Amino acid sequence: MSITSDVIRGHTEPIILAHLIDGDSYGYQINKEIMEKTNNLYELKEATLYSAFRRLEEAGLILSYWGNENVGARRRYYAITDKGREAYQDYKKDWENAKSIINSLLK
Amino acid sequence: MNERMRSHIETLFEDAPKTRKAFELREELLVNSEERYQDLIATGVSDDDAFKHVISSIGNVSELFQGLVEAKGEDKEELEARAKKIAVIKTAAVGIYIFSAALFLAFAMFDMYSPMDLSTLGLITMIFIDIIPTCMLVYVSNLYPKYQRKEDTIVEDFKEWKSENKKARSIKGAVSCIVWTLAVLLYFIISFATFAWYVTWVIFIAAGCAQAIVELVFRLKEMK
Questions:
Q1: Local structure of residue B14 (DSSP, 8 states)
Q2: Which structural domain, as residue segments, surrounds residue A47?
Q3: N or C end of chain B: smaller count of CB under 10 Å?
Q4: What is the pLDDT of residues B131-155, one digit of tens each?
Q5: Using a CB-CB distance cutoff of 8 angstroms, which residues of chain B are in contact with residue A74?
Q6: Is A50 close to B24, i.e. CB distance below 8 A?
Q7: pTM above the 0.80 mark?
């Protein structure tokens, strides 16, 4: 359990990018999807999520904009950029590589 | 909006820097927390438990604030380095002015012992040498950086306004420096060339006019 949550936290940025590839989204929705995909076992702390958003935005991998909900407060949405897509592909290759190395080392 | 949650999040942000980024972050956190809270209530969780769950899932916000204040340190160093550079260039420029004036005086002093017209030669040398420090001063006046906003606050607005003013003032200083240097040079050149000393002093009145025009131009620019 502890290894898993550490690994998830360490991959916050590519996880966000992966979610944004399917379409624009906002903080809580991304976290909700993470919970759904992991059967409610894992979620990211809001603080971790937002610092990742800011780092990604500063690196030009994502953009943010305020939604125009008619009811209640406005949400802040995030969208992936082309640079972000590239970074995601690179990261995925990297991860596959690391995974096979760790697997062969743990055999 | 759940008032208890709002006040809790507002307390968390009490120590945050008062910037637009921090304000937006707070809004984002408020909206997302509210939605999470409503979802929990909808699944049958009690008010109290939902509140506790939402609060605990926020995590450590201080790591967020760190990113909002950093950046400042290196910026300060850069500014200090630039201030030093400006001071060095200004000092060198003044030094060269004094050197050129001394050279002219030396030429003028030896004039009487020489068959050549050393005074005129000295004057021309001085004018040529003075081109260098004048260029240096103009360069320095452009070196003042346009103030880069670090944060969106009223204080930053004021700093930007102040920096613009400082830059305008330094350009104005350089321009009037050029005007008066040119006036003095013209005075000597024309006087030595024509020997009409009784009338050439009019140049200084003209220089005064030019100075007034410079002042006026800058005032008009400021008013825009």
A1: G
A2: 2-106
A3: C
A4: 888 888 888 877 776 665 665 566 7
A5: 27, 31
A6: no
A7: no
